[in-house]
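Entry 14. Ran structure prediction on the chain below.
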Amino acid sequence: MSSNIDDVLRMTRKQIESILPPINFEIDAIIKKNDRTIKKIEEILDALLSYMPLGIGEPEFKKLNKYYKSFNKENADIYNEFYQELMLE
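Output, C-alpha cells:
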C-alpha cells in the first residue's frame, strides 16, 4: 500500500516540477512589468504554498512574496505567516 502512495507522490512531484518553469517565467514577468495585480499574485502564491509539502516551490514563493511586500506589506506578511506555519508542520 505505501508503495502505491509513494508512486503517486513521485508522479505528482514530477508533474508539479514540470510546471515550475512557466511559473518562474510568470513571476519574472510580473516583477519586470511591475505588475501589481493582487489576484494574479495571490493565486500564484497560493499554488506555491500548496506545493511546498512536496518540497517544491519555496524559492519561487519567497521571490514573489518579496516583490509583493514592496507594495502590499500587510498581505505579504500574512502570506509569510502561512509559509512559517507550513514550515513548522
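Residues 2-88 form one domain. Will compare against last week's run tomorrow.
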